[in-house]
Write a structure and sequence with these properties.
alpha/beta; Rossmann fold; 4-stranded parallel β-sheet; two-stranded antiparallel ribbon; 5 helices; globular; transferase; kinase
């Protein structure tokens, strides 16, 4: 269970392409909460264990991410944007929002983004998570 904080921590999660970053950015702007995009944080702070050739992305070091976020999360006032949530401590979040989108919409979004470079099987794997 989340702790009592002056400002809440919110996790926005969902399959790639569901609108997590768009939603988190808009919510942060409307509320003056801090938006933390985990993917950007991993790149900026080198919180990874190298590059995954199949998925064309960094392999997140979950322990390093949690260590980096611990003080900010204790303070409160954060909107965390990430496609997964299983490695974050439950106590960090006051609310969790899971975004979903129809697979046909996801496919269009993913093929218009950088995902178009990836093999079709990777896009199919992403869609199967949904």
């Amino acid at each position: 269970m989340a702790q009592k904080r002056e400002k809440p921590n919110i996790l926005i999660t969902g399959t790639p392409g569901t609108g997590k970053t768009t939603t988190a950015s808009a919510l942060a702007e409307a509320t003056s909460l801090r938006h933390i995009n985990v993917g950007d944080l991993v790149k900026e702070k080198n919180l990874h264990d190298g590059w995954d050739e199949e998925f064309d992305c960094y392999v997140i070091n979950e322990d390093l991410v949690c260590d980096e976020l611990e003080d900010l999360m204790e303070e409160g006032g954060n909107i965390v944007d990430h496609h997964g949530c299983d490695f974050f401590p439950e106590r960090w979040f006051d609310r969790i929002v899971v975004l979903q989108t129809d697979n046909s919409v996801l496919y269009d979004r993913l093929t218009k983004r950088f995902y178009w470079r990836r093999p079709k099987t990777v896009i199919e794997k992403i869609l199967s998570w949904h």
